[in-house]
Design goal:
Structural class: alpha/beta
Radius of gyration: 27 Å
Distance between the termini: 71 Å
Mean pLDDT: 84
Number of helices: 7
Low-confidence stretches: 16-20
Order of helices and strands: HHEEHHHEHEHE
Helix content: 40-55%
Oligomer: single chain
Strand content: 15-25%
Strand order of the largest sheet: 2-1-3-4-5
Number of strands: 5
């Protein structure tokens, strides 16, 4: 008889515990909301993944030492950052901040004669960083503040990057045509 009584006690206590636990949770949630520690579900302004990664790219660009344009790039696969890059001189060399801008001194317009510059592009630095650290970037998405130039586009194609997300245009017709031919999707955010 004792075991039957214990069974009934457990059966009647169990729903009571669930009810109490539910009420405590609801009260705690109301209390946290009232103190400003927790927002209503519908009021949360959480960025989507593309916006999240593009915001990170903007911060990466702030490391740039280029006097003309601050560019940042990150490589992402499976919602994980693989590598970052920003435009600037090769490691250990003087930056344009120190030497002055060769392109400005020579009056070279933006988008022309990329080889006449001390700096590497952000996309190049991201790809190089991945290679330097042995990180596979095949199938990755490149997030970049600016659309890649032709030199970067060729590197992106050979690196196996499949998608490019850019904030601003920097139209290079040949780069656009080659990325299109390689079936690399370029999206503007």
């Amino acid at each position: 008889m004792g075991s039957n009584s214990e069974y009934h006690q457990k059966q009647s206590v169990s729903p009571l515990l669930y009810l109490c636990n539910d009420r405590i949770t609801q009260a705690s949630t109301r209390n946290l909301r009232g103190q400003g520690h927790m927002e209503e579900k519908n009021a949360i302004n959480r960025p989507g993944w593309d916006e999240y990664f593009m915001n990170i790219v903007e911060i990466v660009a702030k490391r740039s030492s280029c006097l003309r344009r601050k560019v940042g790039a990150i490589l992402v696969r499976d919602k994980r950052i693989l590598a970052t890059g920003y435009n600037g001189a090769p490691s250990g060399l003087k930056h344009c901040l120190d030497t002055g801008c060769l392109r400005a001194i020579m009056n070279i317009p933006s988008g022309e004669r990329h080889e006449l510059c001390r700096g590497l592009h952000a996309e190049q630095n991201a790809i190089i960083q991945a290679a330097y650290h042995g990180v596979n970037i095949k199938g990755a998405t490149l997030y970049c503040t600016n659309q890649p130039c032709i030199i970067c586009a060729k590197m992106i194609i050979n690196a196996g990057i499949t998608t490019i997300m850019v904030r601003e245009g920097y139209l290079d017709d040949l780069a656009t045509a080659m990325l299109d031919e390689a079936k690399i999707e370029v999206m503007h955010l």
